[in-house]
Amino acid sequence: MSTLYDIKLKISYRYEYPAAAGRSLLRIMPLNLPDQQLISGAVSCDPPSDFRRDSTDFFGNRTTELAHDRSLSRITFRFDGRVRRSADLVSFDLSRGLSAIRQETDAIRSIDPTSPHHFLGPSERVTPGAEISDFARDTVRSDMSTLAAVQAISHALHGTMTFDPESTEVSTNPLDAFRKRRGVCQDFTHIMIAALRAVDIPAGYVSGFIRTIPPEGKERLEGADAMHAWVRAWCGADAGWVQIDPTNDMMAGNDHVIVAIGRDYADVSPVKGSMRAFGRQTTRHEVDMVSVSPAPAP
């Protein structure tokens, strides 16, 4: 069963003093995948850029490079589009035992973008730490399947952490958030990636959108007010990659629309760039992801 969404994203910046020039790299266009179809979509900015190039990065994420060569006191980036999501939740556990996952990873010879090898070692925003590693090892058992271990860590982390938008910033280290036991979806995701890697499960970061208005009778999901984040974990050659949302302790499915994948937030940040400016800046994120009913057949 598929779900059709109309999605609007607006990311706005205002500068205390006009910026002389700026360069931006955006990752805000959803991916086309076997279980996700980008029916229509456009990335735009206001004021219009002096240069633009659309491309893809190593992991296949859609990127938009923009340059402004004039004074700016504000800038707004937008995505508007329609996406059909048809993700089947995991119904059978095809993963091997957790004790065998490292052997399965070592047997993979490819280092293409889908290879689990990219998602096992330290990355820019996720490095090994004893406290998170101990938490992971205390949560799983060696006789668990790899998928069961992934779900156990998500459940334990969700029970340990409190969702609190005021407790952390985009630059917060995962260990600092873990010690506070508070954070947002980015923190939940980075902590879980570190925990999974500590028990030899390759894990990466997914950025995207989550349904902002829940179906009738269901609770609103955490993280719906801005771009969301969750985890992808490699559960072996037979099970492949699975996606799980530790902020809401659920497998990612039709409520989740994928924008970008990477090793951590540094690979998928929606806006990255530089600006010749001084003084303070303010930013505002607005997301609207509304299901269109009924969804046309694929």
Radius of gyration: 19 Å
The portion of residues assigned to helices is: 10-25%
Largest sheet: 5 strands, antiparallel
Shape: globular
Number of helices: 6
The span between the termini is 10 Å
Secondary-structure element string: EEEEEEHHHEHEHEEEEEHEE
Poorly predicted segments: none
Q: Estimate the mean pLDDT confidence.
A: 92
Number of strands: 15
Sequence of strands across the biggest β-sheet: 12-11-10-9-13
Tell me the fraction of residues in β-strands, as a range: 35-45%
Structural class: alpha+beta
Structure at a glance:
The chain is built from 6 helices and 15 strands. With 298 residues, it is an alpha+beta fold. It is globular, with a radius of gyration of 19 Å.
Textual characterization of the structure:
This protein has 298 residues and is α+β, with helices and mostly antiparallel strands. It is built from six helices and 15 strands. The chain has a five-stranded antiparallel sheet. A four-stranded antiparallel sheet has the order 3-6-1-15, with no helix packed on it. Strands 4-5-2-14 form a four-stranded antiparallel sheet, with no helix packed on it. Helix 4 links the parallel strand 7 and strand 8 (182-183). Helix 3 (146-160) packs across helix 5. The protein is globular and about 60 Å long. The N and C termini lie close together (10 Å).
Chart the SSEs and their pairings.
Layout: E1 3-19, E2 22-26, E3 36-46, E4 51-56, E5 62-68, E6 72-85, H1 101-107, H2 130-139, H3 146-160, E7 162-163, H4 174-180, E8 182-183, H5 185-198, E9 203-210, E10 228-234, E11 241-245, E12 250-251, E13 256-262, H6 265-268, E14 271-275, E15 281-292
Parallel strand pairs: 7-8
Antiparallel strand pairs: 1-6, 1-15, 2-5, 2-14, 3-6, 4-5, 9-10, 9-13, 10-11, 11-12
